[in-house]
Amino acid sequence: MNTLLYVLSTMTLGVVVLGIPAGWAFLAHARTEYDHGPGCWWCHPHLPHRRNTR
What we know:
about 55 residues, mainly alpha, 1 helix, about 0% strand, flat
């Protein structure tokens, strides 16, 4: 019984942890009525620019 409870708890926690950011992204995109393009940081995250050390 302990193993079953552990597996179910782990799966539930995984769904919650992954579901919160997915829910935020869904709500952000549900409010937009147009194609927001590559400037949307939810869909197209960009790495910060690296400093040129030369």
